[in-house]
Automatic annotation (TrEMBL):
Keywords: Membrane, Transmembrane, Transmembrane helix. Its main location: membrane. This is Miniconductance mechanosensitive channel. It comes from the Bacteria. Pfam families: MS_channel_2nd, MS_channel_3rd. Belongs to the MscS (TC 1.A.23) family. Residues 332-391 form the Mechanosensitive ion channel MscS C-terminal domain. The lineage of its organism: Bacteria, Pseudomonadati, Pseudomonadota, Gammaproteobacteria, Enterobacterales. Residues 185-253 form the Mechanosensitive ion channel MscS domain. It is found in: Endomembrane system. It is a multi-pass membrane protein. The chain crosses the membrane at residues 20-47, 68-89, 95-119, 140-161, 167-183. The keyword DNA damage does not apply. Coiled coil: none annotated.
Length: 415
């Protein structure tokens, strides 16, 4: 190119000094770079953006939003400048070395940024698929970005000092301890992310409970160093990724996938209200369609036992008899079986726990047929509303610590 310029200038009668030729050559390179830039960014990319505005294709919009094509065009500009300069500035090796050095650094930097944009694009596209959206890809991509940044940084330094990258890599051995300290969290996060993904321990959208960090809500993001959890009060808690491996946490995903959510709650019965059912009470409770079969079969079983053992029923303590507490347990069990909100294929029982100073705990253990929080609480509340209201029908009382009104009523009676 410089020889061609020299020939043209000589024909025009212009004194062609090496400096003038160099200036003209550099001017042409700059003009060519500007033309290429305008063509790539304003013509090609401009037409793509206009086409996207008309077609509204989601994946093309993602490519544009993350500036992937913009950064690739800068890489292409650097390559073109590198190639042209190596052919046009051959007579000035010192200037050529500077231009080529700048072009190489330009290519490396925008190549790294293009890789970042590509990974961001893939991450956004992965959210469109159900399987990929559940994987902790953000942490993996952040790890790739970190490794790529270190690698490109080494290449840039080796380019500036004119040494082989292997020389720098060999010198990193002495810096291993320092690098481990500086990049401790990313390294631990990378290992934790791999384990979480490989063992299917945590996914985006899982209900995570980790009291140590005040986390109780849905997982928003699994990053290289932190995991974001949106708590049920709409606050956001960040947890170090590696702590999910070193500490214990509760993942409610299995509950959500099972289709049933557990009810495990007790009511406290006043022990002094427990007694044997009288014939009148039996007859009254037998009118309940949920207890008709139970009382009939239980009375037959008890009478048969007492007759076989010649039990003297003149004393209350002799033989077997129906109790109001046992009948209440049977009633609640039948009520839960008939309830439309209870899962019929999961554990269902009503059991009596060890009595204490707060009465006799009667525990309801069952599963709803929904895992939605609002629906679950509605079903649970409906069940216990009914249980609290029917307890007096069995001659039982709930245990309750005396309140101020109870104490005033007692004083009034004594007065």
């Amino acid at each position: 190119m410089q020889e061609y310029l020299l020939l043209i200038l000589n024909k025009l009668g212009v004194e062609a000094t090496p400096l003038i030729i160099l200036i003209i050559t550099l001017t042409l390179i700059i003009l060519l770079s500007v033309i290429i830039h305008l063509f790539l960014h304003h013509v090609i990319l401009g037409s793509m953006k206009k086409s996207e505005a008309r077609n509204h294709k989601f994946w093309r919009q993602i490519l544009i939003d993350h500036n992937l094509f913009d950064r690739l065009s800068f890489v292409l500009q650097g390559i073109i400048v590198h190639v042209i300069s190596s052919h046009w500035v051959v007579r000035e090796p010192e200037v050529l070395d500077i231009i080529l050095l700048c072009a190489q650094i330009w290519i490396l930097l925008y190549g790294l940024l293009s890789l970042f944009a590509l990974l961001d694009t893939l991450l956004s596209l992965s959210h469109m698929t159900k399987v990929a959206s559940q994987l902790p890809l953000r942490g993996i991509f952040q790890s790739i970005k970190l490794i790529a940044a270190i690698f490109i940084g080494i290449l840039i330094i080796s380019t500036l000092i004119g040494k082989s990258p292997t020389l720098l890599l060999s010198g990193l051995g002495a810096m291993t301890a320092v690098l481990m300290l500086v990049f401790k969290d990313p390294i631990l996060g990378l290992v934790a992310g791999i384990q979480l993904s490989a063992n299917n321990m945590l996914k985006i959208g899982d209900w995570l409970e980790m009291p140590k960090y005040g986390a109780d809500g849905a997982v928003l993001d699994i990053g290289l160093t932190t995991v974001k959890v949106r708590n049920w009060d709409n606050t956001v808690t960040t947890i170090p990724t590696y702590s999910l491996i070193s500490d214990s946490f509760k993942n409610w995903r299995s509950m959500s996938e099972s289709g049933g959510r557990r009810i495990k709650r007790s009511i406290k019965i006043d022990a002094t209200s427990v007694h044997f059912l009288s014939p009148e009470e039996q007859q009254n409770l037998q009118n309940s369609h949920l207890l008709t079969s139970y009382i009939k079969n239980k009375v037959t079983e008890i009478n048969q036992f007492n007759n076989e053992h010649n039990v003297d029923l003149s004393l209350t303590i002799n033989g077997r008899r129906l109790t109001n507490l046992g009948t209440l347990r049977a009633y609640i069990g039948e009520y839960l079986k008939a309830h439309s909100g209870i899962h019929k294929n999961m554990t269902l029982m009503v059991r009596q726990l060890e009595a204490g100073s707060e009465g006799i705990p009667l525990e309801i253990y069952a599963f709803t047929n929904t895992v939605a929080w609002v629906e679950y609480e509605g079903i649970q509340s409906d069940i216990f509303d009914h249980i609290y209201s029917i307890i007096p029908q069995f001659g039982l009382r709930l245990h309750q610590t005396p309140t101020g009104s109870d104490m005033r009523a007692m004083v009034e009676r004594l007065g």
